[in-house]
Design brief:
- This is Threonine synthase.
- InterPro entries: Ser/Thr_Dehydratase (IPR050147), TrpB-like_PALP (IPR001926), TrpB-like_PALP_sf (IPR036052).
- Its EC number is 4.2.3.1.
- The chain is an alpha/beta fold and 345 residues long.
- The protein folds into two domains: 178 residues, Rossmann fold, CATH 3.40.50.1100; 96 residues, Rossmann fold (3-Layer(aba) Sandwich), CATH 3.40.50.
- It has a six-stranded mixed beta sheet with strand order 4-5-12-9-10-11, with helices on both faces. A three-stranded antiparallel beta sheet has the order 2-1-3.
- Strand 10, helix 8 and strand 11 form a beta-alpha-beta unit.
- Helix 6 crosses helix 7 and helix 9 packs across helix 10.
- The protein binds zinc ion.
- The site of zinc ion has 7 residues, from loops.
Amino acid sequence: MLRCTKCNRVYEEDLRIQCECEGTLLVERKYSSFAPQRRYFDMRRYLPYLPVNERFLPYLHPPVTPVSKVKNVIFKLEYLHPTGSFKDRGTYVTVAKLKELKIKEIVIDSSGNAAISMAVYSAFSNIRTHIFVSSNTRKEKLSLLSSFGAELHIVEGDRMKVHEEAVKYSRENNIPYLSHWLNPYFLEGTKTVAYEIYEQVGVPEYVVVPTGSGTLFIGIWKGFKELFEMGEISRLPKMIAVQAKGFESLCKRSNSEANVLADGIAIPNPPRKEEMFRIIKESNGSCISIGERVTRQALTELYRMGFIVEPTSAVAYAALKFFEDEGKSFVVPLTGSGLKLHSSF
Ligand SMILES: [Zn+2]
């Protein structure tokens, strides 16, 4: 079932993305034990914990991503997914759900990676996708998007304006609007990052996550919580949300500078903000805000280590310098590929 994070009301698992009270929704299911399907090295490994039927899975299965340890930091290489970001996990579950519900046309809005992922997965799943993006979106990403055959709607204005236009189009044309910020099935995909981390390296002390809309931050926490509730693990990691200066929703808002380099998390008022606050508190975690200069430095370091990621991924690595690292273990997901920023054909 779907449960409202605000008023606790429950709904059946249909395509609803918000409660009638406008609260955000999470999928809630009870699992008795953790038994991955070990013959698979992709998301089917965790099928018993996904709210989808195997019959409807897209043919392209996001793989178990590798981890790479550098000193006391374990990088989780999420940028190695088929479309170059962790968003494929959320898209995979969402598309399976759409196929199950026989929905053939949707409206989404995104600043880049989520749109690219949905454009690819919906194309080969015969789902017509209207994608609303801002005219400010990086031109390399627009160029990629236009090659997938999705219906691209380019909106003059900021991210909030894009959102408004998408909602309007959805209402006027009676096509479901499926914002990944709100879509509860998206988090069911991203929670598998936690399952993989657990299988690969156990429970780290800290998970340090670039955080804008919170689709990865909340998903990872949900995955660890489920493992905890199944009795599989006996402690939980501390969750560190890393944000971009000038766009903070959880840390104190910086007025002095805006980190526009980390465009993937430049979301000043995400709808799942209250959930993220609760996770920081419950996990004994914190929030760290990173400026543009430091992001650039961290990105250069990551490139030189061999990780070709996008600037948004570098903020989490940059945040590590705020910790005294003696004996502590960190997992840092590297969320999106840097190669997309160089691609055109
Ligand atoms: Zn509610």
